């Protein structure tokens, strides 16, 4: 039975796995990402591939990386976290491993994994949104990964949401990921706790007393304990998530949205509200079906599974 | 040589044409739209088809209409201008004419016409935006019309552009078409002329003296005569157009945009600025190609030509 | 003991009262406002004055009216609701009644009433905000009514709150009163109920089933019955109220705010949240006292009492 | 003839002057501000006072400092630039110099200087706005400095202008000074130059080639040489300045605005546009006088002259 390898290059870890045609991970391994040395990242990935390929007969390798990947799925044009510019990753890895390689945007790989084996099975048109420190996006349209003319589609986090809004790392103002992400959640919680420490007492206690030390973990724990400021911060974020989904639905009319990423671990605190906000702001509501808003099912392994499966396609 | 008929149902006129496989209109006719009597619109369309089919041997008919068309291209779910709700237009027209019928969103038909025979030839991924009183959108992705899961994709005018912004006919606040359209142009020109009649003297004179009587024609003429208020109104609109294109590019990474609609007749007054605004706000600029922003080439006949050509597809 | 008359000209009723130096209303009467006949409004006011002056010895009359009053407190420059333009109200009423007359903006009169005899006693710097269909504002600074250079200060409802926002009757976009008023409450509740009728079931039932028939009364009743959509609509409004108070505090640093107007009858549903939003957004919080946010105490009679008392000043 | 001393404590220099009753500076001196040692700042000020008081018989001293000054004009509650918290400046300086001291917010001192001897002579109600890296504000209402209930009025730069907007040093989002200041000008110019280097060629050349090295000086020089990107950056800033003035006029209805600060040195590039934007957005325009928007006349010495004159008042 045909096996392929999937790789997910993260900022801190390289995850690799041998995956079968049903999306099951037969074996996996993790290596630290040498993020301070971009030239060494490809070597680390090649080592992971070779270790796995020593034990299993694999046909091909799919590699997911955060960044702009060119339309031939070969070159990483720009990867902010890894300091890559026009990195010919496919060629390098092919030379180092002797295996067929495809390179894919990591959010696309995740979206494909969920489409084939997770929350998106059976949906031909879906939009995957990973809500972490920022936002990642993967589009599956008509049953295929949508990459755009030059491979740069799906940068959902950089729709402008607030004209003149919060400055984004991309250089623009008011990008969606400045409002609908874990970073936004922390910013709002810190600000509100500084403004009304009494109301945020639970959260501040968890964080050791100072607003600046509030992180996602404390907001989540405080929210579950009923802290009103934590709940407000989640509600703000949920409203912005819902708004962005409504914007995407007006353009792409997907059958469902799949939400993943670190913030989805606290989905009990915001998912219902995001669904409401989405439905409330959907243009043409009442005259159209409303897309499902679902949580991802594959968790952290979606990227490995999706990349491996994409390597299997012709 | 295979001929098909294309129909473009507008709010005031039904345009119909016999079109050949090269996109040339062999014969055309216009009929007034009985907009006050939605039940009669299908009859008028059928009459137009029969008149043309009497003189030419046609294989099929493509009908473009403003509104939400279902994913089977048969039923008009909701067409605000024609007061249709769940109108089974394909079935009705087939019964009345005996010809194969496909129903298509009018902006999709226009986009397809430009893709096949106009400004979009050779581009596999393009976004057509018609800027008139509102905004219409048609997506050609991977060389095919993109309709979405339920046929409702491409409602580009209803992305939220300004949170809490100007109320839109769709019920939401701050939709793109409230800022990047002819209506917005008129609203801004009237407001600025009321505030500073002296500065808007040229435009006011053309409009007969009162801000309320300023319409698109006067703004265009005044702009060409150098009226600073008219030019400011165009600049505002151009900035919002550019912003919206940048948002769409972050999601869909098209090879080009094609701008049409009534406001494009004054493109000399705003297109360069819209291009600048787009390029300036494009996320990842410097690390990616910048999509062309082009004017439509087929003018008012793009809808007829596109609908006819779509009828030819299997 | 010196008595004066206070008049409050509303859109539907003219309220008049004889008031003593302690702010007590000795006698009062109401007359319908002939709003369709602006020329008759002054006559109606004069009749009310004469009726009261027949029974009581009064020194002077204070007349509060919605609109721009000139800096000599004589002329109503512009009163949208009564169709007055440059109305010489003081002269007319003096001629008709033979009594000394001062004309005052109605929100200033209300603010003065609360300052002298209501919720603002003892505060030298206060800002009164009446939240009704729109917003009215009255400033008491350093123990005196603040009118501005030409009598037009205190138009608080027309600060721009959302750039490019909801169109205001004043011709601008995004004025505060488009977000922090009863009209905004109704707009939001209707919109949200249309989007999610199930969630708004209680409110819709109270309103007879259709979103369009929802008015303030139903939102209030539904909110008290726990309807989540009604509560969300109040929360939105409260957040905008709090934001506007924070803006005013950054400019004017008042000792307290006094909130009145029709929406304050439902203060149990939004006042606490408005206070929180204010405190959270106050610039320099932690380094300054936070102004009290209080409800008005005099209710509908504040305007009559305040106008009467202002007539007593030299 | 009575002389007083005025002091203007800036982030880099302490300016001091002996001023006569006509606002003329008889003698002046400058000392570097020991900004890294807040405890020493008062000593430096005291030395300056003593040096001047040795040669001139002075009655009193007015000290202007950036920060929140309490309502008794004695204590600096909070001065971000000098790291003062609850600094009893009046008491310290009185002890060190033996002279009567009043402490005043520096923008108030500047506003008073312009009111008494500069661009604001004869206007009873004026608003001074200093546009530098941020915004400072001073209010003269009814011929007196307006300080607010606790001395913290006039923080004009912290009105919220864009909900969810650019983060401000004060902890809030979207404050006016994030859009209508030299910092905003530089941010916009850098962003636009990065997006379209060709169009910003003049400005980039002046700045040595890279967007990051563009500062105010280069934007001004480039604007005067016709660089379109520099002119756009000034136009953006001017529009936001005009909007803020319109907001202030709706609240306070001043007779004039006086604009100063570093950015006013380039007023030829933006003042007319700011005036237009103000007039266009003024609520009730057409039914009210439009306040003058003037440049400050006293330049850098306004603070010293104003502080000295305020010391003269009882």
From TrEMBL, chains A, B, C, D:
<dbReference type="GO" id="GO:0005737">
    <property type="term" value="C:cytoplasm"/>
</dbReference>
<dbReference type="GO" id="GO:0006096">
    <property type="term" value="P:glycolytic process"/>
</dbReference>
<dbReference type="InterPro" id="IPR049874">
    <property type="entry name" value="ROK_cs"/>
</dbReference>
<comment type="similarity">
    <text>Belongs to the ROK (NagC/XylR) family.</text>
</comment>
<keyword id="KW-0808">Transferase</keyword>
<dbReference type="InterPro" id="IPR000600">
    <property type="entry name" value="ROK"/>
</dbReference>
<dbReference type="GO" id="GO:0005524">
    <property type="term" value="F:ATP binding"/>
</dbReference>
<dbReference type="InterPro" id="IPR004654">
    <property type="entry name" value="ROK_glcA"/>
</dbReference>
<dbReference type="Pfam" id="PF00480">
    <property type="entry name" value="ROK"/>
</dbReference>
<dbReference type="InterPro" id="IPR043129">
    <property type="entry name" value="ATPase_NBD"/>
</dbReference>
<keyword id="KW-0067">ATP-binding</keyword>
<keyword id="KW-0547">Nucleotide-binding</keyword>
<dbReference type="GO" id="GO:0004340">
    <property type="term" value="F:glucokinase activity"/>
</dbReference>
<protein>
    <recommendedName>
        <fullName>Glucokinase</fullName>
        <ecNumber>2.7.1.2</ecNumber>
    </recommendedName>
</protein>
<keyword id="KW-0418">Kinase</keyword>
């Amino acid at each position: 039975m045909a096996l392929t390898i999937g790789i997910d290059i993260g900022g801190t870890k390289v995850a690799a796995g041998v995956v079968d045609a049903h999306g099951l991970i037969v074996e996996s391994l993790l290596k630290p990402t040498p993020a301070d040395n971009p030239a060494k990242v490809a070597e680390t990935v090649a080592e992971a591939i070779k270790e796995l390929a020593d034990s299993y007969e694999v046909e091909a390798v799919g590699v997911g990386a955060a960044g702009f990947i060119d339309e031939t799925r070969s070159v990483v044009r720009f990867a902010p976290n890894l300091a890559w510019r026009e990195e010919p990753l496919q060629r390098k890895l092919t030379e180092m491993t002797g295996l067929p390689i495809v390179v894919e945007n990591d959010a696309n790989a995740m979206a494909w994994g969920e489409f084939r084996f997770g929350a998106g099975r059976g949906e031909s048109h879906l939009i995957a949104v990973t809500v972490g420190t920022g936002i990642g996006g993967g589009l599956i349209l008509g049953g295929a990964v949508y990459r755009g003319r030059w491979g740069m589609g799906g940068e959902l986090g950089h729709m402008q949401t607030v004209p003149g809004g919060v400055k984004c790392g991309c250089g623009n103002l008011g990008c969606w990921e400045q409002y609908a992400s874990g970073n936004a959640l922390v910013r709002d919680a810190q600000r509100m706790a500084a403004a009304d420490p009494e109301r945020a007492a639970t959260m501040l206690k968890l964080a050791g007393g100072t607003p600046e030390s509030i992180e996602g973990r404390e907001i989540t724990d405080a929210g579950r304990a009923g802290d009103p400021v934590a709940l407000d911060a989640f509600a703000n974020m949920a409203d912005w998530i819902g708004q962005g989904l409504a914007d995407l639905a007006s353009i792409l009319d997907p059958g469902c949205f799949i939400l993943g990423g670190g913030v989805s671990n606290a989905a009990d605190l915001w998912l219902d509200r995001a669904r409401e906000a989405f439905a409330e702001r959907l243009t043409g509501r009442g005259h159209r079906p409303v897309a499902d808003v679902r949580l991802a099912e594959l968790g952290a392994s979606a990227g490995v599974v999706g990349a491996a499966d994409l390597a299997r396609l012709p």
